[in-house]
Specification:
Blueprint lengths: L5 E9 L1 H4 L2 E4 L11 E4 L1 H15 E7 L10 E17 L6 E16 L4 E16 L6 H26 L2 H12 L1
Parallel strand pairs: 1-4, 1-5
Antiparallel strand pairs: 2-3, 5-6, 6-7
């Protein structure tokens, strides 16, 4: 994702509201209206954000909490702002289609070594995906999954670009390393 990794010993913290994100989607159409689609998004989002952070920073460790004497040059925290998944089934001439609408918005905050916030940004993406509905409405899961995948890919790209381009983050890390 990035050409040159940012120097520093960084922790990445994924807030529990994001890491444990799950929902059940009910179609907003008469077709397949009794079907339910569980979306267990939290672990995928968490893994994607950690992998992205590890591709940005030379040393990056995922943490579940930040201890007082942590020894990190900075902490990157990710928090859920918005998550929405909608699904509907459209009647077609030859076959029905499943249409998903997936939206994910995440707030990123970078904290210095003393846990003071020094940088904030939002990354997010919205994707509409279509899939063949399938005989038992299974295309709904395919459309949702594909929409989620596109959102996570684009969020990772945004995250990498914003952090890599941030002089504030680089300056904060350099200052911490001098102390």
């Amino acid at each position: 994702l990035v050409d040159h990794k940012v120097d520093g010993n960084i922790a990445i913290y994924i807030h529990p509201d994001l890491a444990d994100l799950n929902s059940v989607v009910k179609p907003q159409s008469r077709s397949c209206s009794t079907a339910r689609f569980p979306v267990e998004a939290g672990q995928s989002i968490k893994a994607s954000l950690i992998k992205t952070a590890q591709s940005i920073f030379k040393n990056c460790e995922a943490v579940d909490s930040v201890p007082e004497n942590h020894g990190f040059d900075g902490i990157l925290a990710a928090e859920l702002l918005d998550f929405d998944v909608d699904l509907k089934f459209n009647d077609g001439v030859w076959s029905d289609t499943a249409e998903s609408w997936v939206e994910i918005n995440i707030k990123l905050t970078f904290y210095d070594s003393e846990v003071n916030p020094v940088w904030r940004s939002v990354v997010g993406y919205t994707k509409i995906k279509f899939s063949d509905a399938g005989g038992t409405c299974g295309g709904g899961a395919t459309a949702i999954s594909s929409g989620m995948e596109h959102c996570l890919k684009n969020i990772s790209i945004q995250m990498a670009e914003k952090i890599s381009d941030s002089n504030k983050i680089k300056t904060t890390i350099a200052r911490s390393q001098r102390n």
